[in-house]
Amino acid sequence: MSFADRLLEKRHLLAARLGRRDEAARATEYWAALRSYHKSNEADPVARGRSEFVADVLVPELGLESLLEIGTNTGRNLGIVKQRHPDIRAKGTDVNPRALEQARRRYPDVEFALQDANDWTEPRGAWDGVLTMSLLDHVPDEAAARLARSMCESARFVICFELWDGEDGERGLYKYSRDNRRLFEALGVITSRWELAPGQYDEVHSALWLYVGETPPAS
């Protein structure tokens, strides 16, 4: 990262801590402004292993023909899914324009949109599956509850790879450990997987857990 980028990120960090808007809006502003967060994303072999698990295990297991990813970053997950399943309809959204610029360049067959997850626009029942990977663990509790409800309304299956260290709580600036099974089951989702995710960096201190569930039929 250049010296100028480091200075800009420090400024955004300070603004995120001192901003007067609500916590969810400050979190979005922080992640949208990062200038280098996405740069090492594609080459990470551990993270790519999780992407391949989605493509090779979860897509066929759930019979997905369409997949929406919230917080897609540079699009690695959907790019690998699309490579393995060329006919799948795939869309990724993110708040960081620099990450999306790279995503569009790398994966032209995937649709990408600059979108704040707090401002949900996806129609009801539009997707077979909706995916998050370290997105909910960057979202404060109230916003996470709203987002979970929106995900359930728009997709048949929810797939989440998120931080869970055994207790709910804040673990850093806009970093949260959360029991996503409890979050989604409170909305009537039927759990099919709640387990340690493939591709761990530090299973003891910052374990990623995989949640997969089927949403209730629309009433």
List the helices and strands and how they pair.
Blueprint: H1 3-18, H2 23-33, H3 45-62, E1 66-70, H4 76-84, E2 89-94, H5 97-106, E3 111-114, E4 127-133, H6 141-154, E5 155-163, E6 169-172, E7 175-177, H7 180-185, E8 190-196, E9 208-214
Parallel strand pairs: 1-2, 1-4, 2-3, 4-5
Antiparallel strand pairs: 5-9, 6-7, 8-9
Structure summarized in a few sentences:
This protein is an alpha/beta fold. The chain has helices at residues 3-18, 23-33, 45-62, 76-84, 97-106, 141-154, 180-185, and strands at 66-70, 89-94, 111-114, 127-133, 155-163, 169-172, 175-177, 190-196, 208-214.
H/E topology pattern: HHHEHEHEEHEEEHEE
Task: Indicate the proportion of strand residues.
Answer: 15-25%
Round the mean pLDDT to the nearest integer and report it. 87
Specify the CATH class: Alpha Beta
Tell me the overall shape.
Answer: globular
Helix content: 25-40%
Poorly predicted tracts of residues: 1-10
Give the full name of the CATH homologous superfamily: Vaccinia Virus protein VP39
List keywords for this structure.
Rossmann fold; alpha/beta; two-stranded antiparallel sheet
Structural summary, described in words:
This protein has 219 residues and is of the alpha/beta class. The protein has seven helices and nine strands. The strands form two sheets. The protein has a seven-stranded mixed sheet. A hairpin with a 2-residue loop joins strand 6 (169-172) and strand 7 (175-177). It is globular and about 40 Å long.
